[in-house]
Recover the amino acids of this structure.
């Protein structure tokens, strides 16, 4: 029910935007958002864009996760190398 | 073409690393509740239950809007569908939910005008195309959906559409979590908090509940890496005995949430007592229309007030929604209650715990 997917805004006409989801084009209301522009990725739920996807935060989350897992691997390697 | 910010969070190497980390760190028996029905589906779809160590059990929570809808509200929808002057517009998940005597599906088969819509906005289209009819929208949603319904009502007002109204069975998430924690027998060691509800509410909305019960809590997105990462954080919080309210879905959720959506929601709706299936009445957990929008209230417009009725005999949906039972421990599961002949809503909604267990069990 709360399913929503990141969709790219390709056109804006007043309160309605045309969004692209993996090659499929559909309309979404942008009434619930300020400052959206063409090229933004928004999360669309039940025909409404409910938020923009924060690209910096997305990349940071992935980077943090990779750093933690890399540290785990290094720790595992050094344990294995110990006599 | 790939889906941006979806594929990255389905990266199998990240998932494997997180699973390894969870397995290495988790020692205590843990009961983690995914509050949101969309998480339930995602957990099954990606096989997450099968990769967790045995000490971690996942419970489904009260976060499938159709599943928590009280029997009397289902009866009200059916009553409205039975009126000759009404086109009832609903999300598809509600169609097969059994009321006391019928379902919307059965009513439609017998000639009632029931239409499945993707958005409350679509229901306005129905109203403008059918000026001789009254279009009633079955408003069954949490914070993610309520602003979209509020925005639709504001659009109706602006466009002068008068043959549109909503029957509100909307509900709020934090009061349900508080009610759950006050229920005897409920034992939850961590909440996987709903991602898209939180897009609207922000992290702050959970702070009062968190500070009262100090249950480890992590807001999660819906991809496998999002969910595994939330489980990993909940394991760490439990193992270190350091409960925290964390946001694991920062690409969509902020501390304060979508303030504009909150304003639209509160402009049209105000908190009221709501009846939750299995849990009962919870003060300030529903969202009813404010007096200035009573003209859009289908219950008032058509004088609908249904009596409280008991839930179907033997149906454990209520206990399943609180993590007190699993679908497999319900006497009706897979016997009298199947997706073809559902007894309770958890077997009807695609996001219901019983439907998910049924679909993915071998």
């Amino acid at each position: 029910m709360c399913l929503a997917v990141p969709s790219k805004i390709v056109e804006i006409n007043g309160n309605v935007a045309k969004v692209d989801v993996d090659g499929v084009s559909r309309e979404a209301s942008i009434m619930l958002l300020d400052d959206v522009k063409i090229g933004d990725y928004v999360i669309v739920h039940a025909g409404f864009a409910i938020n923009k996807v924060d690209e910096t935060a997305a990349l940071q989350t992935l980077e943090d996760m990779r750093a933690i897992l890399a540290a785990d691997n290094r720790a595992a390697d050094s344990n294995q190398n110990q006599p | 073409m790939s889906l941006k910010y979806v594929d990255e969070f389905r990266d199998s190497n990240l998932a494997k690393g997180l699973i390894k980390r969870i397995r290495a760190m988790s020692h205590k028996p843990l009961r983690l509740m995914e509050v949101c029905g969309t998480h339930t589906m995602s957990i099954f779809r990606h096989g997450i239950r099968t990769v967790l160590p045995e000490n971690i059990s996942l419970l489904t929570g009260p976060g499938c809007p159709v599943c928590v809808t009280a029997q009397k509200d289902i009866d009200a929808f059916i009553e409205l569908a039975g009126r000759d002057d009404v086109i009832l517009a609903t999300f598809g998940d509600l169609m097969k939910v059994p009321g006391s005597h019928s379902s919307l599906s059965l009513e439609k088969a017998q000639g009632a005008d029931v239409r499945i819509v993707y958005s409350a906005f679509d229901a306005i289209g129905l109203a403008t195309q059918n000026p001789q009819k009254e279009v009633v929208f079955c408003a069954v949603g949490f914070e993610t959906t309520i602003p979209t319904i509020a925005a639709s009502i504001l659009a109706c007002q602006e466009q002068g559409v008068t043959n549109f109204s909503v029957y509100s069975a909307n509900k709020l998430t934090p009061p349900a979590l508080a009610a759950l924690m006050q229920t005897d027998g409920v034992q939850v060691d961590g909440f996987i908090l709903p991602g898209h509800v939180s897009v609207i509410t922000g992290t702050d909305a959970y702070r009062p509940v968190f500070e009262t019960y100090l249950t480890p809590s992590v807001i999660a997105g819906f991809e496998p890496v999002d969910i595994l990462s939330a489980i990993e954080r909940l394991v760490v919080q439990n193992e270190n005995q350091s409960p925290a309210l964390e946001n694991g879905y920062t690409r969509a959720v902020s501390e304060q949430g979508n303030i504009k959506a909150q304003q639209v929601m509160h402009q049209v709706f105000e908190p009221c007592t709501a009846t939750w299936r299995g849990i009962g009445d919870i003060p300030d957990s529903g969202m009813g229309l404010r007096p200035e929008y009573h003209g859009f209230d289908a219950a008032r417009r058509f004088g609908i007030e249904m009596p409280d009725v008991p839930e179907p005999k033997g149906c454990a949906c209520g206990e399943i929604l609180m993590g007190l039972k699993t679908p497999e421990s319900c006497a009706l599961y897979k016997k009298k209650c199947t997706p073809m002949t559902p007894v309770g809503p958890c077997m009807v909604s695609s996001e219901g715990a019983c439907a998910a267990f049924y679909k993915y069990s071998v």
